[in-house]
Amino acid sequence: MKSSLQAPRPLALFTALARERATVLATAVAMLATTVRATLLAALVLPPASALAAPPSVEPPAVPVAASLADYRAAIRSGGPGKDGIPSIDQPRFRSAAQANATLDDGDIVIGLYRHGEARAYPQRILVWHEIVNDAIAGEAVSITYCPLTGTALGFRRGDTELGVSGRLLNSNLVMYDRATDSDWPQMLGVAIAGPLAGRGLEELRLHWTTWGRWKARYPATRVLSDQTGYVRNYRRDPYGRYNPRGGYYRPDSRRLFPVMHQDDRFPPKTIVFGLRTPSGALAITREALREAGMIATRLGDAAYLVIHDPALDTGWAFRNPAGVAIDADQLTFGQAGVEGPGIDALEPINGFEAMWFAWAAFYPETRVIDSP
Length: 373
What we know:
20% of the residues lie in helices and 35% in strands. The longest helix has 24 residues, at 22-45. The protein has 373 residues and is an alpha+beta fold. The strands form nine sheets. A five-stranded mixed beta sheet has the order 4-16-6-5-15. Strands 3-10-11-12 form a four-stranded antiparallel beta sheet, with no helix packed on it. Strand 22 and strand 23 (303-310) form a beta hairpin. The chain has eight helices and 29 strands. The radius of gyration is 20 Å and the shape is globular.
């Protein structure tokens, strides 16, 4: 591993942008043009921070923090658009699965949420333009967050406030802020690095990175985020590339665009890993290893963990196994609530999510890696 914190010269950065995807720069310029407008609009429609309650958080955070908060703050870079220049969706509208079929292909990426008996799908092609959806499901206020530069989708409980896009990046990853305290939260860390809540961790929700065809097969009654967002965007075009099939910025061997605190070249930078974090450390499993193994038992520190591949959604379910319960993979089934079978109720679910390898290694440089069954 080696440090690569020094920022590239502007000319080199713009050259890299053009090489990866010519439209990225044009999109950034267009987003910059909306920054002042979005900031003025936010000032008109958002309640003052003092009127909002801080988001639910815990201290100490439930994830490893590899650097000091000061070092994280020093590594922040501007992403181009300013604060709220990439506008969150704060009044989302939804449509039925049948209606969504008219614009979504089965291979298109969606971010799925199943909570309190309700299923929702957030198309990646919409999230790439907004990055945060402040939603509520069964009366619970949640934020659905997505960073296109790191390929990460995480959900958080937001309480009475909302999360917004700060316009800054840490390790190429979205830095969010909450509108109650103006604390800064890197998405992949989920820990405030600046502001009144510095050092505290947000409460996470399990989201699922999968395809529209896979999601609607399991959740036929799902509601789907509508492209009627109140903003003028071309939701049929991803300014960074494509996932169906993978191309442009999302190619496994393509270059990252911004500096990172730590670099690890064991895999191509955009290789997708399934990762989990605990106070004892972090674990990254390649998709190929998880698919082939079906179920992986491992340890982080003194604790035992189990990661189970869900073949229908092509993702993983992560659990802490405090009693060392033996699980027979052949007796497991998968339903709307997740993994079912003998012994599963004795396990403690923990959050796991997909990420691009370069970003995972930057935030969790001491991560364990499983790349073979």
